[in-house]
Amino acid sequence: MATAPSSSLFLTSSSPISTPPRARAGSSHSSPCRPSLRPRRTSQVVAAAVQAEHQPAVAAAPKPPALPFRVGHGFDLHRLEPDLPLIIGGINIPHDRGCEAHSDGDVLLHCVVDAILGALGLPDIGQIFPDSDPRWKGADSSVFMREAVKLMHEAGYELGNLDATLILQKPKISPFKETIRSNLCELLGADPSVVNLKAKTHEKVDSLGENRSIAAHTVILLMRK
Questions:
Q1: How many other C-beta atoms are found inside a 10 Å radius of the C-beta of residue 34?
Q2: pLDDT (tens digit, 9 = 90+) per residue, 194-208?
Q3: How do the residues of the chain divide into helix, strand and coil, expressed in percent and rounded to 5?
């Protein structure tokens, strides 16, 4: 099997990463009454491990041509369950439900990561950070974001613009929209003028409209440096 060039995105399985489990909102380790709107910071242990030895997660793909621009689309959906934290764009949003997921379940960051990877012609987030890997249990999704951004720069591209849409019936995102967008800009290293965030309900239709799930779409334009 061919091997891919060394990259920070492909990790070795020899060194397990210890990440704290996501606490249920009703447990003694959570604080549902005072949710934090500050960006969640990546554990130093996780960040260090991501920068450690690397190993391809998939077979090498042919090097893509140096196009002047690339477009990527990302989509993600997670089931909502009671007493879990709801993390959107790295921000803890007050709600009685949160995303059931292997990592922290951040539907927006997962969606943006997939858009970047797709634009670069790389495997999706589920192949590179599989939910079968215990290292990513409860992991902060900013880890995945920073690695995708690093790959973008390594490939010689920078963000042109990004347009993201959140789809959820509850809670209302408008009070937290600028905080989410600001953190997204920080993770991307982008000016706010090129990062757009919208939120829509699903008109009480299907699982999204019944507050049983949350979804996101992202379209991204990468420009050659």
A1: 7
A2: 999 999 999 999 999
A3: 30, 25, 50
Specify whether the CB–CB gap between 24 and 126 falls below 8 A.
Answer: no
Instruction: Measure the CA–CA gap between 116 and 145, rounded to whole angstroms.
Output: 9
Instruction: Tell me the per-residue pLDDT of 87-119, one tens digit each, with 9 for 90 and over.
Output: 999 999 999 998 886 778 899 999 999 999 999
**Residue 157 to residue 120: CA distance in whole angstroms:** 9
Encoding tokens for residue 218? 């992202």
Q: How many CB atoms lie within 10 A of CB 170?
A: 15
- ∠ CA 102-105-107, nearest 5°, is 140
CB 114 within 8 A of CB 125: yes
Q: What is the pTM of this model?
A: 0.73
Characterise 152 by phi-psi region: left (phi > 0), alpha (psi -120 to 50), beta (else). alpha
